[in-house]
């Protein structure tokens, strides 16, 4: 969690259609393509700080599976050390404008609770711990069910950093293939721009808002300049006006603008997946 925006959001309503199984040693939510449809490949969903348990992440995984005819894996790369959805209410208290002395008073216990929940996430999911887990999962994937299937990666906030890493093609699988074939990320965090953009090699689509407090607008514009300057077919960076951090997953569906921002991010992802699964198949 890089800033308060990483813990702000709203719960979405719906019943996940997938199931939890152990995949390559990790508890994993699995969303399948519609019945009777042949899977085009596999999408690995690398989530935000709310991890495997947030219903929003599962519902979005279901949409990807349904709209791209692929199997989607949402692994627990965090080993259970994710933040709970109750943080949404905690952050509402902290960020509420002071109206009375009581508003100010309740910010203190809320801040303590926020630290209590965020600290384990930050400690147990630091780069030195998470990177080996992420790489191992993708190596195992390529050595097994994805040996002959296309693999896409989808990353949000915390997970966006790993999609950038994977699209830099840092390691090859035992069969000589890249660990993924292409990636998509919305409002990624933990990036160093321009460095992380300059080393990207595999097709990557980025979606972020011009009001994102994590990946600031200047860095976002620089990222767009670097990536699209390489190849506008393989790389795209979409800047969504008025969107803040987390909009692709945690936007409030009762707010018209937030709902539209989420739909834009979803459509961008689906279009990118369908484009590259077809290209790889051809």
Number of helices: 9
Strand content: 15-25%
**CA(first)-CA(last) distance:** 40 Å
Q: Helix- and strand-based class?
A: alpha/beta
How do the SSEs run, as a string of H and E?
A: EEEHEHHHEHEHEHEHH
Largest beta sheet: what is the strand line-up? 1-2-4-3-5-6-7-8
Give the low-pLDDT segments: none
State the shape. Answer: globular
Radius of gyration: 18 Å
Q: What is the strand tally? A: 8
Kindly summarize this structure in a few lines:
This protein has 9 helices and 8 strands. By secondary structure, it is an alpha/beta fold. The radius of gyration is 18 Å and the shape is globular.
Fill in the keyword field for this structure.
282 residues, alpha/beta, eight-stranded mixed beta sheet
Task: Characterise this structure.
By secondary structure, the chain is α/β, with parallel strands linked by helices. It has helices at residues 55-68, 87-95, 101-124, 127-143, 158-167, 195-198, 217-230, 247-250, 256-281, and strands at 19-23, 26-31, 41-46, 71-75, 150-157, 182-188, 204-209, 235-240. The protein has an 8-stranded mixed sheet, sandwiched between helices. Strand 1 (19-23) and strand 2 form a beta hairpin. Helix 1 packs across helix 9. The mean pLDDT is 93.
Set out the fold topology.
Elements: E1 19-23, E2 26-31, E3 41-46, H1 55-68, E4 71-75, H2 87-95, H3 101-124, H4 127-143, E5 150-157, H5 158-167, E6 182-188, H6 195-198, E7 204-209, H7 217-230, E8 235-240, H8 247-250, H9 256-281
Parallel strand pairs: 3-4, 3-5, 5-6, 6-7, 7-8
Antiparallel strand pairs: 1-2, 2-4
